[in-house]
Each structure stands twice: as C-alpha cells, then as structure tokens.
Design a protein that fits this description.
binds Palmitoyl-CoA, flat, 10 strands, membrane
Length: 224
C-alpha cells in the first residue's frame, strides 16, 4: 500500500491558512474520486446504523467487522485533519470539510455550483441530519448555509471567514430534497455581506444573512 502523506506534505506551502500544493489537478481528481466512493459507503453505513432493526447479536458482529476495516485504513494516516489545499490551477480540495468534504462520510455532501449571480446546491438530507421528528436539525441548516454563503463570499478567489451569521427559521425544514442558494449583497472593504436560504418544494424554510471577512493580508486572485 502506498502512503500519500509524504508527497502532500513535501509540496505544501502556507498561504493565508490554506496550502498551496503542487499536486497536479489530474492526480487530485483521481484520488478524490477514490475517497468519494469510500465516503459514499460510509454515509450509507451511518444511515443503515441509525435505521437498522436487526437482532443485537448481528449488530455486534457488524461492529467487529467494522473495527477490522477501520484498522486497515489506520495503517497509513495524516497526522491531523485534512486541511484545505489548492494548486496553481486554483483547483482546491478540502476532503475533510464538514459540509463538502469528498472523504467525509458525515458531510451530506453539498455540491456547490458557482454561477454569475451566486451559488446554489441541491442536496438530499436523510436520517443522519434529523433534529425534530422528520425535520432537519437547526444546527445542520446553519452549518450548510454557513458553508454555501462562505463559498459565495470566497468566489473561489479569496478566503472568507464567517464573522456573523443570522438565521430565521420560518418553518420546519423537512428531511428529503432541498435547495440552498446564496448571493453577495454588497462589499465594504474586507467585509462581504451575503444572503442565503434553504427551500423545499413548498418554498423557503430558512433565511440567513451573513457578514464574511477576508482576513487581513490574505491573497486575492482575479475573478474567473
Ligand atoms: C486563497 C485562494 C482561494 C482558496 C479557495 C478556497 C475556497 C474555500 C471556501 C471555503 C468556504 C468556507 C465557508 C465556511 C466558513 C466558516 O465556517 S469560517 C469558520 C468560522 N469563522 C471563524 O472561525 C472566524 C473567527 N474570527 C476570525 O478569524 C476573525 O475575527 C475575523 C472574522 C477574520 C476578523 O478578524 P480581523 O480581520 O482581524 O478583523 P478586523 O480587522 O478587526 O475587522 C475588519 C472589519 O470586519 C469587521 N468585523 C470583524 N469581526 C467581525 C464579526 N465577527 N462580525 C462582523 N463584522 C466583523 C470589523 O468591524 C471591521 O469592519 P470595518 O471597521 O472595516 O468596517
């Protein structure tokens, strides 16, 4: 088995909390597809574990089988979290991210689409994201909006951290298919004001307003 840790660490240079990495885009895409397929199965496992009704003995046998699989993945590990990396093509990858991480089985995951007027994402939230019965946990709604609004502020050309995020929960957000939207309303110096929403088939369930800050001294690339 080949470890990936050394090549990533050797090529990384720090840039405003993000890492410039010389891994070619083709190689990033290849590895991402592999990790994504693993995370999809992990996500399925989480859902199956929540909803299983098999006998206790079978649950315990599955637990032992899983422990053996975990040990195989632990054979070669990063020393800490996956971090955020980007290369000279401005291909960025944040495989551990809680919302979009390709390798993260507890990320829904959100697939953010960047357009001229902002960003949107279609997502289906299952049993792992439940708060009130049949409804999305309010913190999960805030987390997803925080991410898509932050990515909108970032525009894939600068880093933008959440300064203030205000949520208005208009009605319960049902588990199932949902659409998230975000757009930049205005900018003042390093402050980027962003609106966001979550909708189901019946309309908006959650609205949000956020102020995202570009940390002082961090790089900004031209718009693409
Ligand atoms: C690089 C290449 C491309 C890479 C491409 C990758 C793209 C990848 C996209 C990822 C998208 C992630 C989306 C998730 C986003 C999170 O979840 S980020 C995590 C949660 N947020 C945090 O942890 C932030 C913690 N806070 C901080 O780090 C710092 O307080 C901040 C927010 C950076 C501000 O610090 P600062 O720059 O020292 O701020 P400061 O100079 O005091 O103030 C600047 C201005 O902002 C205002 N301000 C400061 N703090 C706040 C606040 N909390 N609220 C409102 N206004 C504030 C000040 O009043 C001031 O305003 P003016 O006086 O200029 O009018």
């Amino acid at each position: 088995m080949t470890s990936r840790r050394s090549s990533l660490d050797a090529s990384a240079a720090h840039a405003g909390g993000f890492f410039l990495d010389d891994t070619p885009t083709e190689e990033v895409d290849r590895r991402e597809a592999v990790l994504e397929s693993l995370a999809g199965t992990v996500r399925d496992l989480v859902d199956a574990a929540i909803r299983t009704t098999v006998e206790d003995e079978e649950v315990l046998r599955v637990r032992d089988d899983l422990a053996a699989l975990v040990a195989r993945l632990r054979a070669s590990q990063l020393p800490g979290p996956a971090g955020v990396r980007f290369n000279a093509d401005r291909r960025s990858w944040n495989w551990g991210n809680a919302v979009v991480g390709a390798a993260n089985g507890i990320a829904p995951p959100l697939r953010v689409v960047h357009g001229p007027d902002g960003c949107h994402a279609d997502v289906r939230l299952g049993a792992a994201y439940e708060g009130p019965p049949g409804l999305v946990h309010g913190g999960v709604s805030a987390m997803l909006l925080d991410h898509i609004m932050g990515e909108t502020a970032s525009g894939r050309r600068r880093t933008a951290f959440t300064g203030t995020l205000t949520m208005r929960y208009r009605r319960g957000t049902p588990l199932g298919p949902l659409r998230l939207e975000a757009r930049v309303v205005r900018e003042e110096g390093r402050k980027i004001f962003v609106d966001g929403s979550i909708s189901d088939a019946g309309g908006v369930t959650v609205e949000a307003e956020g102020i995202f800050i570009q940390p002082a001294g961090t790089p900004e690339f031209p718009r693409t």
